[in-house]
Amino acid sequence: SLFRAFDMEAKGWKLIDPGSAAGLDGSIAKANERGENWFGYYWSPTSIIGKYDMQPVPFGVDYAGDDNWNNCVAVADCDDPKPTAWIQSQVFTIVTDEFMKNGGEINDYLAKRVYTAEAMGSMLVFMADEQADGGDAAVEFLLNHEDLWKTWVSEEVAAKIKGAL
Predict the structure, then answer these.
(1) N or C terminus of the chain: which is more exposed, having fewer CB within 10 Å?
(2) Could you give the CA distance from residue 30 to residue 48 in angstroms, rounded to a whole number?
(3) Residues 105, 68 share a domain
(4) 121 φ, ψ to 5°?
(5) pLDDT in tens, the chain (165 residues)
(6) Residue 125 falls inside a structural domain
(7) Domain span holding position 105
(8) CB 40, CB 46: distance < 8 Å
(9) pTM of the predicted model as reported, rounded to 2 decimal places
């Protein structure tokens, strides 16, 4: 829909379906290995975006609203999609009512915990390249993203974490 909204065909662009997520990832990797440019739509954060340090291209327009996005851009055969910037998805931490009532300091920690796209991307690359599990990734995160996680905990807790590493 965005291809049509921005009238890309009239501007000389071709829309190519790679057939699958693996095909899309392969096209990015191949272009990178050849030193070629790659332009397309992709979601983030993912290991492939982090691995090749891909950057978003400004759309040159603001987000055109939820109605255009939800009822047209996100619909395959919408007749009249309007140009729009990409939607910013929200991510939430969800807990049970019981946890919320009794979580105490843990709730405070969860409320502060926000990952940057760069940190998340680097962790996804680490996990993919090293075939790392969640435990390995947690240690890697603590070792390499202290500037981020220290803002989520007290100085006392940060000192204990550093001591345990």
Answers:
(1) C
(2) 12
(3) no
(4) -60, -45
(5) 999 999 999 999 999 899 999 999 999 999 999 999 999 888 888 999 989 988 888 999 999 999 999 999 999 889 999 999 988 778 889 999 999 999 999 999 999 999 888 899 999 999 999 999 999 999 999 999 999 999 999 999 999 999 999
(6) yes
(7) 97-164
(8) no
(9) 0.76
